[in-house]
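Inputs:
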Amino acid sequence: MKVRDFKPVSNVDRLVKQLRYTAFNGRALAEAVDILEEMVSDQNTIRLLGFAGALIPAGFRRVIAEFIGSGFFHAVVTTGANVTHDLAMALGGEVHQLQKAIPDAALRRMGRMRIYDLYTSSKSFLLLERFLKKALESLRDGVYSTYELLKHLGSLVDDENSFVAAAARQDVKIIVPAFYDSILGVQFWTLTQGRNLKIDLSKDLSWLVNLQFDAKGRDRSVGAFILGGGVPKNFIFQSALIADHPLRYVVQITVDVPEYGGLSGATLEEAKSWGKISSKAKVATVYCDYTIALPIIASVLFIRAKRIKA
Amino acid sequence: MKVRDFKPVSNVDRLVKQLRYTAFNGRALAEAVDILEEMVSDQNTIRLLGFAGALIPAGFRRVIAEFIGSGFFHAVVTTGANVTHDLAMALGGEVHQLQKAIPDAALRRMGRMRIYDLYTSSKSFLLLERFLKKALESLRDGVYSTYELLKHLGSLVDDENSFVAAAARQDVKIIVPAFYDSILGVQFWTLTQGRNLKIDLSKDLSWLVNLQFDAKGRDRSVGAFILGGGVPKNFIFQSALIADHPLRYVVQITVDVPEYGGLSGATLEEAKSWGKISSKAKVATVYCDYTIALPIIASVLFIRAKRIKA
Amino acid sequence: MKVRDFKPVSNVDRLVKQLRYTAFNGRALAEAVDILEEMVSDQNTIRLLGFAGALIPAGFRRVIAEFIGSGFFHAVVTTGANVTHDLAMALGGEVHQLQKAIPDAALRRMGRMRIYDLYTSSKSFLLLERFLKKALESLRDGVYSTYELLKHLGSLVDDENSFVAAAARQDVKIIVPAFYDSILGVQFWTLTQGRNLKIDLSKDLSWLVNLQFDAKGRDRSVGAFILGGGVPKNFIFQSALIADHPLRYVVQITVDVPEYGGLSGATLEEAKSWGKISSKAKVATVYCDYTIALPIIASVLFIRAKRIKA
Amino acid sequence: MKVRDFKPVSNVDRLVKQLRYTAFNGRALAEAVDILEEMVSDQNTIRLLGFAGALIPAGFRRVIAEFIGSGFFHAVVTTGANVTHDLAMALGGEVHQLQKAIPDAALRRMGRMRIYDLYTSSKSFLLLERFLKKALESLRDGVYSTYELLKHLGSLVDDENSFVAAAARQDVKIIVPAFYDSILGVQFWTLTQGRNLKIDLSKDLSWLVNLQFDAKGRDRSVGAFILGGGVPKNFIFQSALIADHPLRYVVQITVDVPEYGGLSGATLEEAKSWGKISSKAKVATVYCDYTIALPIIASVLFIRAKRIKA
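Outputs:
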């Protein structure tokens, strides 16, 4: 395919369509959108969304909520921090942009907790704690998966931008494999001291593996959209390995490169040697901050799905 | 400023306007566009464009040509490779996308020279050589700057997507500080053996420093848009230092980070300590492959300048 | 401090001492070693080791085992994959270097699972499964933390290079916050179906938070050495936050940069705004593949502790 | 080859020998040293050294000077900035470590020019200017290559740590393809106004291409050690292409990754498709800050060459 010179254009779908004929990550972005478009409209495919990093405080809750609301994904695997921030923001907790460089020691004195060029405050976490306390009072003792707990919490939240609420409405499971590695996990631990209310992550593993095992039995394929690396990426890939049902579509958006040997940056090719991804899979990796790639991808997918006007 | 949840949208200007309220490089991209918009419409500012890396073979010649054609920049500093590819493509040389992984030794046997996920062939360089031979025959002996040579070459090229041709038409200077570090430079060297036709890069330095010295004298500010690092970034910054007229607008798009101490990744803040950039300058750095960032930036700048329809 | 020109030298301690007078990550490495030396010899400090990424299959099990055997650390937080590989290697499972580029689909057919430039095979995991099956038979039903489970497993392993075995001997706790995100976790889940044998990660959280809360009560400081980012980094920092006892020493070795906003690459300065790290803490970040930085750091620490001959 | 667990050790050669059996960039570093050892002791090989980035102010002048003094390299290709700093330091100019974070605007007021965690001052450049003025007075009018100019300058410098002086003594050519992109270039330009003293970079190109062309004619191979990317890497590779004599040994130390398509990060495999590197070449790429990799490599090479005591 001959490279074609890009021409500025106002519509983001036409912008991405042109990138298909360019190179490097611009081209990869266009290929990623094409694969995702095919994946989300393939009725015979179970679709998983994994995301790590500070996606939610960065302002992309609503995108995830709309993905879920549009039926694009059947399950979500993410970090406790993203769930924590989603709920806190839904409850009125605020995240602000830092407008200039302030030393971190000074931010500490001002009660501002920094996330690169953002800050939040303990007020957000107090709002979450108050909410959680009440939410747990209405939850009977027992052993829960994270997706069961989050469905309960999501059902109590009234915010159309919350992806946890959207998932609860649509009965899309949210799995948080490192649950206690988050403010939410810690608050849960504190608030359930003395109760017989437990999180059992093996239930989450069972559900996700069974989902894929079942898909295999019914000749349905499985696809994944991975934003960032870490536990969400590994947990999704691992479940495909265990179910012995390699993924057929995989798109990852990451800034972790393979040259240092870690799983977060590992290529999708490498995953084929493990049987996590099918050798016939449609795959694309875009090396890009997802605060740039995700808004483009989401906008184009919604245009193509006729959910927003071109 | 409170973070606002991004909402998918079809118009790229409205997409970027929303990113202004998000975080990380998405936010930085929006800030970069705002600064560039202000810079290119500031009639009291001399505007420089620097770019390194394989931007031209990647498919972004026309963007640069339209920048020049729109009067956005008064001078361009770039690498010999980008000029080489622009001319070769204008002459019918082709750059193709690689469609699958092929070992480089096999590509070698097929006569395909790889640029990551692209390839070109020696045919491109033969076209260039034939053109250059003729072009040099019509150039009298003497000592030339690179901008003079490139104006001559650009004036002989008939391709609206060529940025070298666009610059020749608009009398925008193109400076290539490492001229001999390119196929074009090598062909020039070969074809001028025995002639008294020379490139003197000190003429390029003089012109660029004088441009800024003159701007200083007339109370005009200077701004720069830098894509990638390397010599173009340093040469522009250095000329501001020598003219003792720190830059007032600077936007850089790069994937080189500061943590390794090199100039390509150096922050714009660091340049303030040198007096290369004014402490009051409007600056933004976007860590992103420019094959993604540039098409967005260009499209939004043209929408805002009413050069394309929103 | 004036930069001093480095002079080649055969002793790695003298090499690092010279780097102290250089720049960038060379200087940072020397500062990191100085901080770690002070930290591991500070009897009034609780010392934590966190590591993510493929450190163990890469050949650095023995270094971790020697750190533990030397009393350098009181607790370890890591990934399930590293524990999985440590046990598999202790049981005779092999990890090999790839000697040339082989397509991943071909590796799949050869039964080779790739980790960048390494490969392992399912034999390793079968050895682990057989071992685990037996180990779990000797474990009575109940609810266990990961450190309790790993102490049991480590006590059954006979390999001086195994860090899990070393930790069991020294009663150093190993915490794996995303336990089910690993082959070991999956095998545990499979082998305990139908039994009343459970992992409860809130016990791990309790222990680690209490360790730091207790340190605070006794005026003892806490320090951390972090290799890679991910869950281990966050889990250690979070426990300092909850115990409200900011860390006094922190060294991190990473290739994740801050410019993309994620926690793995977040600066140690940022952690001060949260109260995870003390504003008076001694900190250093080295941007380097730990397969290069760790062998140097470990060698110099052992030389200075007179555990190996200079 | 089976991975072997690394064991801390005091001798840097034995440290690196062990890394040969590990993974990722640790393994690559060991392979790089083996290739360089073979290359520098291969009497039938022309050896080139290329380096970019702030290597010299970072404290690694003496390493380069010792490489040259030991006969390891026949020619050096570098940036004007590195030559500038080498000469300034030789003349008494100082580079200092920054001991804490100071805003760049404040550094500006203090007359400190920052290079990441270093600073220098205009005094260094004044010393250089005074020296250069005098040096140029003793140089008759004419057209010079950069290697001729630098030989003259190096011969006037009395500092055993200066690599420019070492090269002058050994008659090793130093080529600076982007000469005017540096303080030295700018001072030269200023001081030669009105004189008939010119730099002609085509002479540098001629010499380097002829060196390789000649090597080809005599069945001698060519090898290169590349620190950082940019113009030095490209200029060396390009000269191999033009001489049609692909390199037989190449080691590069870089933090630029291939995933963004630029030449600095391009793989050595890619260079094989162009015929810049032989398909049978011995090559290694180490992704590492050279302030860490270079002192290790240099020390081991000198141990193995018996230039320092093991």
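Remarks. The mean pLDDT of chain A is 97. Residues 43-294 of chain A form a domain with the Deoxyhypusine Synthase fold (CATH 3.40.910.10).
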